[in-house]
Structure formats: C-alpha cells, structure tokens
Amino acid sequence: MFENLSDRLGRVVQNLRGQGRITEDNIKETLREVRMALLEADVALPVVKEFVEEVKEKALGEEVMKSLTPGQALIKIVNDELVQVMGEAGEGLDLRAQPPAVILMAGLQGSGKTTSVGKLARFLKEREKKKVMVVSTDVYRPAAIDQLHTLADEIGVEFFPSDPGQKPEKIAKKALEAARKGHFDVLIVDTAGRLHIDEAMMEEIQALHKALNPVETLFVVDAMTGQDAANTARAFNEALPLTGVVLTKIDGDARGGAALSIRKITGKPIKFLGVGEKTT
C-alpha cells in the first residue's frame, strides 16, 4: 500500500546520505521532497502541512545541526514522525465487556461496511473462537440486509433478521436482547451509509450508539477515496467516539495516503486492512 511513498522517501534519503552537514537550505529542500511524496500519495493537504512543520521544527533543533551524521539524523526524524502518526504497534479489538460485546460499524455507502462485517465475524469466530451474531440496521437498502444474511450463512454465524419497515434503533435493541438471551460473545451491527455525509445519517448513528453502548465503534473507509477520506474521517470522528478504523480496498491503492490522513485526523488506530470482497 505504501510502495510509492516508500520509493519517494527512499530517494530523499539517498540524496541526504551524501551531505556532509545539514543546513537550513538542504533541510528546506528535503522537506519539499517529503511534502511532494506525501501529496503524491494522496495525503490530505492540512495533514501534509502539519507533518512537514513538525519535522522541520525537530530538524532545526540542536541535535541534528550538531550531529556527526546529520543526514542520518534527519532521516530518523522523518521516520520517527511517520511511526508516531501511524502508531508504533497494531491494536486489536477490545472485547473486555459483559457479553455480548457490541461492535458498531460506521461509514459511507460503498465503503465496504457489510463485507467488513462478514470478514470481522469470520475472524472472531475462527481466530478468537467467539460466538458471533450479526445484524443489519440498513433499512434503506434491502439488498444490504440480504447481503449480510448470505455472508452470515456462508461463514456460519447467527444472523438476526430485519426488514425495511422497521426502525434502525428498534432493530438494534431487539438484536442486543436476542444476543443476550442466546449467550453470544459478540454482536456486530451493520449500519446505513449515505453517498455523502448528512445530518440525518449522523443523528441516526448517534442514536444507535446511545442505544447499544458499543465497546468498539469502527469507522469503515475506502482507501481509494484519497483526499475525501480525510473529510469523512473528520465528520465521523466529531459525531462518534470512534475506537478504530477499518481501511478497505487497500489492494486497489498503492499510495497509502488515506491511511496517513485518517490516522492523523482521528488519532485512532487502523485496526484492520481489507483486501478484496471475499470473506476468506
């Protein structure tokens, strides 16, 4: 996913290695290259500006200017800043709760939410040995309910039925009650998306969050949306107490900019990366 960004930053590193000492001029030149590499990777402009400023501030510090290997010192600063933005270690799901632990999936239409519910259900069933129930509250797209039903049958997890005539909040509460009675470990809730962010959508998912009190609220986003991913991430992060991100369709995007933008804007870990539409 980060091939192009890595290649570009690699060339910056090679240019720096030959520098005997670091001056404000070659710091400026290096940061220009870093900025271009990030923009080409489709990282959101405000994120690029902030990242470059933070690197510049550290690069102009005493330890770099006086270092015997200033090029290496500057490379380390860029690397450390990237690590800080992306997070040092992968974070898993936190399911420490009175069962059933509820996972709420949020995101725009077409981001891959329903497929991600299926993949997550399979992961929890097969890897974590959990008893899983899934439910769709997307009453606007009957096909989404059918899709989740098909995925649940394929994976071998419980599907809680719903239909377009019901209210999302009521569906969610009934599913939670059924999951409790059936002694399920995890309930994964698929939600409605829109083609763009709107007030009604946010109010609905906030109401669902309040009704369910989930242990995990995951923001599902398509890696190929690039710059738009940053705006969507900001809106969902302001509306919901997100606990993590699921970045889908990463096989279609070699740039990696969406991951950096979302991680920087939300401050939330990218918990899962999705490849393809199959749940295997």
Automatic annotation (TrEMBL):
It holds the Pfam family SRP54. One of its GO terms (biological process) is SRP-dependent cotranslational protein targeting to membrane. Residues 100-280 form the SRP54-type proteins GTP-binding domain. SUPFAM superfamilies: P-loop containing nucleoside triphosphate hydrolases (SSF52540). Residues 1-86 form the Signal recognition particle SRP54 helical bundle domain. Its EC number is 3.6.5.4. GO terms for cellular component: signal recognition particle. The keyword Lipid biosynthesis does not apply. One of its GO terms (molecular function) is GTP binding. This is signal-recognition-particle GTPase. It comes from Thiolapillus brandeum.
